[in-house]
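Re: Re: token formats

Sure, here are both.
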Amino acid sequence: MASKIKSVRPRSYLNRDFDSFRAELVEYARTYFSDKITDFSENGMGGLFVEMAAYVGDVMSYYLDHQFNELDIQTAVEPGNIERLVRMSGVKIQGAAPATAKRYRVQLLQQLV
């Protein structure tokens, strides 16, 4: 009996991007600061501040989504986090075995002589 393997998509907890951050920031600025700044175009000073804040929000949203995805064994991609999650689930991970290449090399050299 074949089991179906369900593909797991990374989850997005904010569903935010640069454009949605920018739109909300412009709406907020027009509501509360309409008497101070009226030009929020890309060429204006207000647009510069809005776009910088939207960029920071977009980058922070990306890293927040990445960190939340690293908390689940099915969506984690970083080896350190996968190892930590496996150890937390009770699986014992064996360390590396000692190397014996030097002994074999000496035996090989003795056979050649």
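Second one below.
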Amino acid sequence: MDTLSLTRHGAWHQTSLMKALLEVEDLVVRYPIPRGIVGTVKRAPAQAVHAVDGISFGLAAGEMVALVGESGCGKTSTAQAVMRLVDPEAGSIRFEGRDLTGLGVRALRPLRRRIQMVYQDPYESLDPRFRVRQAVEEPLAIHRLGGSRTEREERVREALERVELTPPELFLERYPHELSGGQRQRVAIAAALVLEPVLLVADEPVSMLDVSVRAGVLSLLDSLKRQGLAILMITHDLSTAARFADRIAVMYLGRIVEEGPAVDVVRSPQHPYTRALLSVVPRRDPRERHTGQVLRGETPDAVHIPSGCRFHPRCPLAFDTCRVEEPTLAPTPVGHDAACLLI
């Protein structure tokens, strides 16, 4: 596939020719629910959480794609499947043209150097017993890279400089508790970059940080993207995605309901769910009056997916057909894709 264009379901169109680094097609991730002793005796039917239910997207080098949605919509499960931390039930994940879904642990090991992940909580992702030097050097030791100790230390310094922790000498001997939240997250990013990956999966990279330091970390990710790093960013914040991502895919209950260039999705949202998310984003001008659209009810249980359009129980525009017919992603009059029967 020479462009970021997946033909099935009409998902993921790219106007400029770009070679796809990551291609996800019809990805399905389900988590079986144990029946327990009573359920086994009663022969209760097997049930599963439908975390990701047939999504497709692509990502090119030097591009940031944001998966956006409420908690529980399947964003993190998608990221974990891309990293092969969980096994997908169906679909394919192609990285640099190679399908990862059928690879074992040994075959995945060299590929893991090229795909790294930054977790949501820098307070948990760093070992409190490790100094910064050890935390950043550990991936090199695990993958047996870097040559001599002197060469590894030089790579650690370069990684810290790359995440703007300069001069490195001020941070090398510190423990995580001696750093601010933003500095901790930068150390976590440095530990990922020290292996020189080509794809970075960032799972809510700033949600645990103070507002005052979020911009710095996001600007760092934007700088890395401009240097050619591909970034898959998981976030619930549409304003963040609109500012830094090239493309946005809005997820709801395991499905992508709208996707396209970030500017297009934000300026001309086509799906009622996207409009509701955007309606509660604070406006720059405090004098601008607007009324946020509060969705009624809670997100449906991912074990028992609603029939028809899975958003219809909360949609203010739902009509009878929405309850029986499930829409698929299709081009809209404004150019990007959405899955809504009203379009």
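The first strand starts at residue 20 and ends at 33. The longest helix spans residues 211-226.
- S.
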